[in-house]
Amyloid-beta A4 protein-binding family A member 2 (Camelus dromedarius), 434 residues
Amino acid sequence: MPRDLALQCWLDRGILGFPGRVLTVVKKPLGYFHPVGISDLTLGPCEPEDLIDGIIFAANYLGSTQLLSERNPSKNIRMMQAQEAVSRVKRMQKAAKIKKKANSEGDAQTLTEVDLFISTQRIKVLNADTQETMMDHALRTISYIADIGNIVVLMARRRMPRSASQDCIETTPGAQEGKKQYKMICHVFESEDAQLIAQSIGQAFSVAYQEFLRANGINPEDLSQKEYSDIINTQEMYNDDLIHFSNSENCKELQLEKHKGEILGVVVVESGWGSILPTVILANMMNGGPAARSGKLSIGDQIMSINGTSLVGLPLATCQGIIKGLKNQTQVKLNIVSCPPVTTVLIKRPDLKYQLGFSVQNGIICSLMRGGIAERGGVRVGHRIIEINGQSVVATAHEKIVQALSNSVGEIHMKTMPAAMFRLLTGQETPLYI
């Protein structure tokens, strides 16, 4: 694979099975706070080979909470967020203990002993007694790591519209009015190896990226991360969902009438990883069904909520289940954002030496480097490429699509749509209406 199109991104690897052996490391007592990103170093407390296989730490899981945060808070704000998360979790623990004591349930057990598994692919949390998986995060989903004494805080974020999140999540310390907000999910652990855990997770990012480059025939020493970062910082987000979604002309609240026992008559698909507001898209409507009958919906519309239940961030199967649950209702209230079925992408690539940061297989985008020029250009995982620089690639062979992308420089214009929607619209799949 050529260097400039090393597209099988390490940020989007598959699920890792739990390894059959436990590896040990030597603790180095250094404090650590790591804003997760790509580094050109693999130095750290662990041997890189150990992180590839995976290492395990003993810890106590204290709980989780959610905050709202700006996109790039300062280091001080990040530490305040971590401290706030710890305070909230401890308050929840105290309340649970008091409640159990009041119910004469004896001493409350507020700590759960866990095995914290860290590798270059995943972070898994397993119950130490039953080995049941409690959490399973791809490494790329961890945004920040902080250690505070014997406490470790793992933070993962997903940008949300402030209005959709504010009702149920408290604003984080330091957040300013009028700025875009992210929902920050914070998991809190207690361990005597807190500092080492934080260091090891940070090192795992570096090792994973180095391994990805080598696997694609790229010498990591040939890449300057600072130079690439400088290019990224000069580029604005293109096709920003939040701008489109915040325009009141695009947002609609609809009331649909239907008969009891009648399905809504729609097919929905995922908006694609890389969407700032992940939800489901209307991909097809059944002729004569309630959705089509209403005349209020169009292919490409993104459904934000149904009867007051938000679909933003929910798995596709969950959203489909909510829609199926409407069968016995006679009225359905939808909040939608009118969107065209085709997504416009604009990637700005100043030189061939900068990798695009996404992978494509048979015209379908299958992975995306978080924070790269492709994400800023509006590329979404799971989308089918329809057009590149004004030329249709619907019937173009995979090798020619790769060649067209790898040789493109300057402004790269693309049009894409969810692959599932493309297959439905072109008759490759039979719609299953719900």
Observations:
- The chain has two domains: 5-11+23-99+110-159+178-222, 224-433.
- Confidence is low (pLDDT under 50) at residues 1-42, 159-175.
- The first helix runs from residue 48 to 53.
